[in-house]
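assembly run, all chains below
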Amino acid sequence: MNEPMDFLIWTRGTAFDIAVTIFVIGVILRLFEILALGRKQNLAEPKGSEFGPGMKTILTRSIPDLGTFRRQPLTVVAGYMFHIGLLVSLIMFVPHIELFRATFGFSWPGLPTPIVDAAAVLAIVGLLAALWHRIMNPVMRKITTWEDWLVWTLTFLPILTGYLAYHRMVNPYPVILGLHILSVEALMIAFPFTKLMHTFTVFLSRWYNGAMSGRRGVES
Amino acid sequence: MAENSTLGDSLRRHGVSRRGFLKFCTATASLMALPPSMVPAIAAALERARRPSVIWLSFQECTGCTESLTRSHSPSVESLIFDHISLDYHHTLQAAAGEAAEAAREAAMHENKGNYILVVDGSIPLGNPGYSTIAGISNLQMLEETAKDAAAIVAVGTCAAFGGLPQANPNPTGAVSVSDIIKDKPIINVSGCPPIPTVITGVLAHFLTFGAIPELDQYNRPKVFYGQSIHDRCYRRPFYDKGLFAETFDDEGAKAGWCLYKLGCKGPMTYNACATTKWNQGTSWPVESGHGCLGCSEPRFWDAGGFYNALSVPISDNSQTVAFAAAAGLVLGAAAAGLNYKTKDEAQKAHGTVTIDDLEKKS
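ok done. output:
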């Protein structure tokens, strides 16, 4: 009789502590790995500067590329749909903001729930389109590894369970809320060890790409 | 003891008019989401109903459930119905004590074998039978004995339904609910701390009318009262959807009646009828009085995080977890970086240069 609530209490307590600990230690170690372990010393004479071209590439790689859009419109459209939908539902939903406030002590205003709801649908559709693209496109199929399937699933489940919980589509409610939290915990545990790390390294790696090209004196 | 007079006779004797009685039947029908065409059937059934024998057992409880029912409001048709069930044993309310009281319970069980309703409030301690006894009989023994020949069991209050406060961490008495012990009888859980009086009378009226227990949810609670969440029926819900929240109990938002989610309201996980039936004859209910829902009708509500923390906030101190993990990560990362710096430094020192001539000499 008490199992659904026991499950919810476990996901909000012990399981959350474990997941957050792995997530935080993992992400910090990965960032140390990237920033502190350094690269092999490049003995070649530099042909240009690193900093400026690096900053420029952060900008250019953040704007959708027309050529890519013409060749693979789905990559661009689904990518933007998913990332915007995820970001809005993650950081503009008041219950989520309350979690950030309880953790870091500051908060920001949220959005009305119908807008967050629409964002969640956008993210779900975007992820499904990306999955369809991955399955149907021969090139995508060739370059897909097991990690891609894992990461897709781990990203999809929190949004799906969150949507189901918000709309109370599963009874009893503690089960679906607990599953939502558990799926986020699975995501947090896998996060530092998979390509999900791009959340923290995206601008860093764009800068590095630009900087390396700059050093070699080529356009990035 | 159960008399042979019907409920209709009994109500008339107490001066309840036909009009008042039908008003109650209509209210009961709408409360239980039955079509208006059911009203005459309810009236007829209640009119003819014999006074059922009810045995009320109180175990590890605070008497709040009994208080809720008896002190709810001045006599009404609901309370008369409650008065005119044959409450054969209730050790808080009965005049008799000790042997005489137990004799009354045994007599009621014997005379109404298989037909009486057993109402239980309070949890049952399994840790040590001595934690809670009545006339030297342990709660477990009394429950098993009395449940054996009951027609149905109504577990009143969260303690009897789910374990409640006595079961809260660390559960020193090993408290369990009625349904943890009794497996072979229909059990209706009427949870709440305390439950709404109307819900109790509604359940009894349903039992008298249809001779069967109402439709139950996954926690064995009557669906008509526990079918919807506080959140979904809350009059403050539009503010939640608009993103308008009270941040403290006395800010402008609180005064304007905005949503109490941030102040710890557990409405979204709580299923009860408070938002619709309200308390004290429809006067108000916790959220209307400006305080968030505690989730008292749900299992383990006492252990489900701070009452003043939002439902989405983890139960343990998350900022502490993050701080410790971050410190550990920084120490480990710095140590790894230090070791690496040493290795690279040694490699740098051992670095030598060769010229084309050097290479050619060697070959």
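Residues 79 and 201 of chain B are 8 Å apart (CA to CA).

Strands of chain B lie at 53-58, 86-90, 117-121, 124-125, 133-134, 137-138, 152-156, 175-176, 187-190.

not gonna interpret more than that til we talk
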